[in-house]
Write a structure and sequence with these properties.
Length: about 675
C-alpha cells in the first residue's frame, strides 16, 4: 500500500497486534457485559413499545393485557438465561448453538441453527441502528427526516470501531451502555416512586389522546391472535442472549464461569427494565399507535409521535429537562452499540463455520488487530442492505426479526436435552446424576417454552415479513451446503500421494513478443535458462507495419531464437495465441508448453491500468489449458523503485498475522531465501 493509505489505515485501526498478544485482548466481565449484552439490554427501548403498538390495533382497552404479556416475556427470558448458563458450561469453545445442535442433532440441524443466527445477527444490526436513529430523530428532526443516511453512517462508524479489535471496542462502548442502564433505572425508580408512593400525577404527552380503531371489538380467536402477535413482538427482548454462548472464547479465564455470570447479570437487568417500562407506561398513560395520524384522537396538527422511551423520560423528568436529554442520548447510543453484540457474535460464528468448511476460509482469518475483519465487513455490508431496502423503518424490520433466534433457541435446547441424556447413560455418581437431571429439566422447560414462542412467532409474523427471513435462511443453508461440498470435492481430488500422470517427454518454450526491447530480451534469457527442448518467439500480427519492423529488427539482431508471426485478421491477440498453443498440444500431447509473458512492474495504481492488460487476459485464459505452464517475467520500471525501497525492511504480507516481527529479521529473510536457492543450484 502507499504511505497515505497505510497512514489512513493505522489512524483508523491503530497499530497491528502480534498473534501472541491474543490473550491480552480477552475481556473481563465488566467489559464483556456491554460488549455481549448491549443488544438484550437495549431491546427494552423498543420491545415494550412494540407490544403497545400491536395492541393499539384493538384500541385502548387492549392495553390491559400489556402487563401479562410483559410477565410472559420475562418468564421466557428467565428460562432462556438459565438454559444458556448450561450451554456455556457444556460447550465453551465458542460454537454456541451451532456446536450444540451439530454434536447432538446432526450436521443439518447445526447448519439450520447457523443459518438462522447469521441472518438474525444481520437483522440485529439493522433493527438496532434503525431504532437508534428513530430515538435521535425524536429530539433532532433533521435526523428523523433522513433516517437511512444517518443509519448507514452509524453502521460505518460501528464497523470502524470493531475493526480496531474486540477489547478496544469494548472499552469504547462500555461507558454509553452503563450510562443507559443507570439512567433508565433512575428514570424507572423516580417515576414509580412518584406515582405509587408520592401519589404524583405523572402524565405522558399522549395520555389525554383518544385512540380510534376499526378493530376495537375484537374477541375470541382474533383477540387471542392479536395478543399472541404482541407477545411475539415483545420477545425481541430476548435477542442477544445467544451471543454470549458464541462469544465464550473472548472472556477471560475461567471462561465458562465468567460467561455464565455475565448471562445472569444480563437477565436480571433486562427483566427489571422491561417490566419497569411496561408498568410505568401504563401509569403515565402512554399511547403508541401504528398510524398516529389516523388512530390518535385529540393530537394537535403536525403531531410527531415520540418513542415510548422518549415519552416516559419527558414525563418523569418534566421538571428536570437534563434528565430527558440524558435518557434520549443514552438510548440512542446504546441502540447503536447494541449492534455491537452482532459485530462480536457474527464474526466468531462465521469463523467457526469456515473451520467446518461451510463458509469461505477467509472468514477465519484475523486482521491486524486480531479481530475477524472479513466477517465484520461482511456483516456491515449486509446490514446496510437491509436498512436501505426497508427505509430504516423499525416496525418493518422487526417483523423479520427474532424468527432466527428462536429457531436457534429451540434446536439448541433440544440438543442440550440429548446431551444430558447421553451423559446420564455413562454417569456413575448419584450426586452427578442428580445434577444432570436438574440441568436436563431446565433445558426441557426451555425447549417447551422456546418451541411454543417459535410457533407463535411463525404464525403471527409470517405474512407480515417473517417469510423473508425464512427464505434468506433457506438460501444461506443451501449456499453453505454447496460450499462444504465444494471444499470436500477439492480435498478428495487433491488427496493422496500417488500421482499417476505421465511425465512430459519434451518441453517447448514460447516467448510472447510485442517489441524487441529489454523486457523481451530478459524473457528470452529466462526461457533459455530452463533448457527447453525447443524455444521459439511468437508475435501476433495486428498491424502490418509494426510487425514488418519487428521482423526486420529481429533478423538484424544476434538473437538465434526463431520468431514466428501469427496472423490475426480481426486484430485479436488472445485468441490467436490460444489457438497456437492448443495446436502445439494437439500435435504433441505428451509435450509440456511453457509460455513466457513479459510484464511491467509499476509503482502507481494508474500505471497498472495503462500496462499489462493483454498479459492479464492471456494468463487468465492459458491457466485453463492442460499441459501449459505460464511464467510471468517481470521488468521493473523506475516508478517501482520507490515501492521497492519502502518495502525493504518490512515483513512479508501476512507476517503480522503469523506472529513474525518487523525489522532486521524480515530484511534477512529474502537474502537467506536467495542464498538457499543459490546453494541449491550450486
Amino acid at each position: 500500500m502507499s504511505k497515505i493509505s497505510t497512514a489512513a489505515k493505522r489512524l483508523i485501526l491503530g497499530r497491528p497486534y502480534r498473534s501472541d498478544t491474543l490473550g491480552a485482548t480477552l475481556l473481563p466481565k465488566r467489559i464483556a457485559l456491554p460488549v455481549f449484552a448491549s443488544d438484550a439490554v437495549s431491546s427494552v427501548a423498543y420491545a415494550p413499545e412494540e407490544i403497545f403498538l400491536v395492541l393499539s390495533m384493538a384500541g385502548i382497552s387492549a392495553y390491559a393485557y400489556t402487563s401479562w404479556i410483559g410477565i410472559a416475556v420475562a418468564v421466557v427470558m428467565v428460562v432462556v438465561v438459565a438454559s444458556y448458563r448450561q450451554n456455556v458450561h457444556a460447550y465453551p469453545s465458542g460454537g454456541g448453538d451451532f456446536e450444540v445442535a451439530t454434536k447432538n442433532l446432526g450436521p443439518s440441524a447445526g447448519l439450520t441453527v447457523a443459518s438462522a443466527l447469521l441472518v438474525d445477527y444481520v437483522l440485529t444490526v439493522a433493527v438496532s441502528i434503525a431504532a437508534a436513529v428513530s430515538n435521535i430523530g425524536a429530539a433532532v428532526p433533521v435526523i428523523g427526516d433522513h433516517k437511512v443516511i444517518f443509519a448507514v453512517l452509524a453502521i460505518v462508524l460501528l464497523t470502524a470501531g470493531n475493526l480496531r479489535g474486540v477489547r478496544e471496542a469494548g472499552k469504547a462502548f462500555a461507558v454509553p451502555t452503563y450510562i443507559f442502564i443507570v439512567s433508565v433505572l433512575i428514570m424507572l425508580v423516580w417515576g414509580l416512586v412518584d406515582t405509587f408512593i408520592l401519589g404524583a400525577d405523572v402524565q405522558a404527552e399522549s395520555a389525554d389522546f383518544g385512540m380510534r380503531s376499526d378493530n376495537s371489538h375484537l374477541y375470541g380467536i382474533a383477540l387471542v391472535f392479536l395478543i399472541a402477535r404482541a407477545f411475539s413482538s415483545g420477545c425481541a427482548a430476548l435477542t442477544g442472549v445467544e451471543a454470549i454462548s458464541n462469544g465464550v472464547p473472548a472472556f477471560r479465564r475461567p471462561k465458562s464461569k465468567n460467561a455464565a455470570t455475565t448471562l445472569l447479570m444480563l437477565g436480571g437487568i433486562a427483566i427489571t427494565m422491561l417490566i419497569g417500562m411496561i408498568v410505568l407506561a401504563q401509569k403515565t398513560g402512554v399511547k403508541i399507535a401504528e398510524n398516529p395520524e389516523e388512530q390518535l384522537v385529540g393530537a394537535p396538527d403536525g403531531y410527531q409521535q415520540k418513542t415510548m422511551m422518549a415519552q416516559l423520560a419527558q414525563a418523569v423528568f418534566s421538571g428536570f429537562p437534563v434528565g430527558f436529554y440524558v435518557v434520549a442520548i443514552a438510548t440512542a447510543l446504546v441502540l447503536m452499540l447494541a449492534a455491537n453484540t452482532a459485530f462480536n457474535g457474527f464474526p466468531v460464528l462465521a469463523s467457526v463455520l469456515s473451520q467446518h468448511n461451510y463458509l469461505p476460509r477467509q472468514l477465519h482469518t484475523r486482521g491486524d488487530r486480531l479481530a475477524f475483519s472479513n466477517g465484520i465487513l461482511f456483516l456491515a455490508a449486509a446490514a446496510i442492505g437491509f436498512v436501505v431496502a426497508f427505509g430504516g423503518q423499525v416496525t418493518a424490520l422487526i417483523q423479520l426479526y427474532i424468527v432466527g433466534v428462536f429457531i436457534s433457541f429451540t434446536l439448541s435446547q433440544a440438543g442440550m436435552v440429548l446431551h444430558w441424556n447421553r451423559l446420564l447413560a455413562d454417569a456413575q455418581s448419584r450426586r452427578e446424576r442428580a445434577r444432570m437431571r436438574r440441568s436436563r429439566l431446565v433445558n426441557c422447560i426451555g425447549l417447551v417454552l422456546t418451541g411454543t414462542v417459535l410457533v407463535i412467532v411463525l404464525v403471527t409474523k409470517f405474512a407480515a415479513g417473517a417469510w423473508i427471513a425464512l427464505v434468506l435462511m433457506i438460501l444461506l443453508f443451501l449456499m453453505m451446503r454447496g460450499i462444504q461440498r465444494h471444499y470436500a470435492a477439492v480435498a478428495e481430488e487433491l488427496s493422496g500421494s500417488d500421482w499417476d500422470a505421465v511425465l512430459p517427454s519434451r518441453t517447448r518454450s514460447v516467448v510472447l513478443v510485442s517489441k524487441l526491447h529489454k523486457p523481451t530480451l530478459r524473457a528470452l534469457a529466462y526461457a533459455r535458462v530452463t533448457r527447453p527442448d525447443t524455444l521459439e518467439a511468437v508475435t501476433v500480427n495486428v498491424d502490418d507495419a509494426d510487425t514488418r519492423e519487428l521482423v526486420r529488427q529481429w533478423e538484424n539482431s544476434d538473437i538465434r531464437v526463431p520468431l514466428k508471426v501469427i496472423e490475426s485478421p480481426y486484430r485479436e491477440i488472445t485468441r490467436p495465441v490460444l489457438d497456437y498453443v492448443k495446436r502445439l498440444r494437439r500435435d504433441a500431447p505428451r509435450d509440456v508448453v511453457m509460455v513466457f509473458i513479459p510484464e511491467y512492474v509499476v509503482g502507481r495504481w494508474w500505471e497498472q491500468v495503462l500496462h499489462n492488460q493483454s498479459a492479464l487476459r492471456l494468463k487468465s485464459r492459458l491457466l485453463f489449458q492442460r499441459g501449459v505452464i505460464v511464467a510471468s517475467v517481470p521488468w521493473q520500471l523506475e516508478s517501482s523503485a520507490r515501492v521497492r525501497s519502502r518495502l525493504r525492511g518490512t515483513a512479508a504480507p501476512g507476517a503480522v498475522r503469523r506472529g513474525f516481527t518487523d525489522g532486521p529479521a524480515a530484511d534477512d529473510a529474502p537474502r537467506q531465501a536467495g542464498g538457499a536457492s543459490r546453494r541449491g543450484r550450486d
